[in-house]
Amino acid sequence: MHGGNILRCARKHIGMTQEEVCMLMDMNLATYKRWEQGVTEPDFSHVLQICEIVFKMDLLQAIALANPEGVAA
Question: Can you give the pTM of this predicted structure?
Answer without folding.
Answer: 0.90
